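1st attempt posting a full record on here, be nice pls
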Amino acid sequence: WLRHISLKDQFSSFHRIALNHQAFVAEVMTTVPPNIVFMRNIVRAKLFVWEEPCAKLATVQLVDQADSFFWVLSSSGSYSVNSFYQFMINTDSQFRHKII
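the predicted structure (as tokens):
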């Protein structure tokens, strides 16, 4: 995850062609060039695009500690039924009646 979006979703085109979908960021980014293998070569424009996630990940400092959960829909960071309900009723969705 980088910010509140998974790396898989932010860089889906690279995730689809990566051979190891279970690789940890720390394993990939500890070497130069990054320790990742793709199903096909990344050349020209795609190589330029590949530099974006590498640059973003280079600024992240990884720490060896337990992961934590933060619920972005409440100011406390803790999950509550009310925060989820408020999100659902205030979300503009044509299928809202099927969700609630």
